[in-house]
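Why predict the complex rather than its parts? Because the way molecules touch one another can change local conformation, and only a joint prediction can capture that. The input here totals 919 residues.
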Amino acid sequence: MRIQRWVLAVILCIVFSSRIEAFKFQRTQQTERISGSAGDVLEDDPVGRLKVFVYELPSKYNKKILQKDPRCLTHMFAAEIFMHRFLLSSPVRTFNPEEADWFYTPVYTTCDLTANGLPLPFKSPRMMRSAIQLISSNWPYWNRTEGADHFFIVPHDFGACFHYQEEKAIERGILPLLQRATLVQTFGQRNHVCLNDGSITIPPYAPPQKMQAHLIPPTTPRSIFVYFRGLFYDVGNDPEGGYYARGARASVWENFKDNPLFDISTEHPTTYYEDMQRAIFCLCPLGWAPWSPRLVEAVVFGCIPVIIADDIVLPFADAIPWEDIGVFVAEKDVPKLDTILTSIPIDEILRKQRLLANPSMKQAMLFPQPAQPRDAFHQILNGLARKLPHNKSVYLNPGEKILNWTAGPAGDLKPW
Amino acid sequence: MKQLTALQQQGRRSNSFRNASSPLDATVDGAIKSPATIFWLVLHGLCCLISLVLGFRFSRLVFFLLFSTSPSPSATTIYSALQTTLPSSGVTSTPERNISAGGSRVVVGRHGILIRPWPHPDPGEVMKAHSIIERVQTEQRSLYGVKNPRTVIAITPTYVRTFQTLHLTGVMHSLMNVPYDLIWIVVEAGGATNETASLIAKSGLRTIHIGFNGKMPVLWEDRHKLESRMRLHALRIVREQRLDGIVMFADDSNMHSLELFDEIQNVKWVGAVSVGILAHLGGSDEGELPMVQRDSNETDEKKSKVPVQGPACNSSDRLVGWHTFDTLPYLERSARYIGDRAVVLPRKLEWAGFVLNSRLVWDDKLEKPVWIKEWEDVDRDGEDVESPLSLLKDTSVVEPLGSCGRKVLLWWLRVEARADSKFPARWIIDPPLDITVPAKRTPWPDAPPELPSSAEKVIIIPESTEKRPTKSGSRRKRSSRSKRKHSAKVLDDRLSTRHPGDN
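Output of the joint prediction:
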């Protein structure tokens, strides 16, 4: 009997594995499975793997700010607001903080906008400090770990360094109170002060409905070789060039402005999304910060992203193998960009297009309303789930203090 | 140093409101003219001059080297745009790479703009890129386009005449661009000639060139009938050779869009597309597209407001009738013979608007659907098969293509010269034309038309370098009337364009 059972089990195993092989083979015809360094995790479901407790902060930290300026819902930093809304109604939310694995503080630090719509980060450190003071005094969970099981969404230019100028941001460093917390941010650059180990990089917010509305039939032949629309010189802030984008965008312009293969200009065409769908390569160079919504747009529209930003850390880098999907060009190699792109073997180009055509890939970059399975919200939760269980050492003994509450510039210590 | 950097930083992010709250507020006090300030100003001016000469700003570099106390990293590299003697990487930088406090390899600060010495496209790379683009498009087509594309069998009735080269070249180029397998059946009235054969041989397509006995008549009525018979003859070839694919009728004077060939791949048995009818008034002033009146009494054949022939669908995309071109306004003015200065009218439903699955004309008894007539019934001499609908017993099975006839995928246009118009065979001028008198001042069309006995105008052929002796007393013959083929002619613009229908 036993032997028969074993034989049956072995047969079943073989059948299952062969079926999966067949699946894989079929999929590689048109799309390919995506698996990053953490394995094949893009399609994981976080429900049941973690529990998140959402602090109830007074509305001056979130709702009132949003009411003052509803533009925060459409700009590229809107992820912080949408993540809050998603967590409020998500099955991973728990109302019992004792069983929570992660704690979320809904504070919208990137919603103080200028007339142009750019966020001012000057009050953000104070706002964050004030929020942390509130949660540490009203709930015991902050002091238990000094924030090591808390996460914050800080989608601004340089994350929790809370400044738009890189030199100033480096000077400030990450807000001292957030040193132990997990930061979910769009900024990512290796060996940079503003990126902690263990942070989760997310894509900037790009409006999903707007992009869906501009889809063209996939039979439209891709006839543009390289496409880019945007600034090359930021004449307002860096008229000589060399500062903005570390000179990389200016270099692209000077080297390729008369090259027929490069469709690059500073115009704002109404057919921007449609043109991206007719292009094979889309340039995603750095600007004042290394990340940009162009990456999201390129992935959604199936255009291979050419990333020109040294040491950049791309969204969900452990779940998505960006090396296989995009082309990385060092900033010093920009003058040779045409040689680099034309010498990529055609099989690789086709493979990258197949990877991009994978719907999981496109879903993972978007923040749809309402949330859909495998979208960016779920990828964030997956990332948080992969960091579990928490190391025993993060739990501090009562009375033990690691963070310095008075560190940082004097302006930050003022109450908000 | 700090003052200068503060000044420079104030320029960034032009919104001065934001900079006002910057902690590094500059307290520049420029009113005091102490010797130190003057010294610095003079030094700065000197450095500016040196920078102008050298071509790059080195003042920051010098100050950095001398007074480097600031912890924030900055590196300067030389602005290489003006230096043409630089090596191919375009940078000769003083490698001032100061690592920031965070250990980053990437340095904040001003970088040079790297430009290679010859920033222009390289033709080899352009060709490589084009081959990449082509491969990507083929892949796209195989993934998203038509699966299992079928051969296209194009049937073209033609005959040798002045406008043949014009029309046939157009059709040939369209067919050469079709991305599917193609068989081109060219039926020539008056027998197969070398002229046509040499023309279609240039296409590189698989062609079947057959002759058809019978000269192309001059009257339009008879023409249409002969063309129908020629097309049936071609279908006979399809039947005999059992060619497999989709049969479409590419008349040589029509203009086809490439979308048409993608669309007809969707046909199952018989399909119909919308044809744009460009009836024109040859030579007269009102050469505009006619606006056709709608006749609401007709239910079966709607006369549309637009000059289109094709399937008519109801709201659920099913075929209910046909749109035809309303010929009533033109009947009095319709052209009777070729070259007539009048509107050339199409027939009620042109052959070109229909596509057939080639198996419909095969000999198979079993495979064909019930609504197709037997070949022998159709292929009777003397009967005029007006359109492929006559091949069907039941016309409701026709599939409307091109989003149910909403897309016009080809255009019908009949432009022909007079039947007796002459043209050089194969459009090769041999022997070369004579030069009689070189023109000193060419009179242009504004000048009043000249009589044959007055001044001359000459066409100079580039290949003949020697001038033949001038012949005064011009022998200007109207090319259309000349019996002599290639004698010395002086062609006068105005004379030859007197009859627009002529060559």
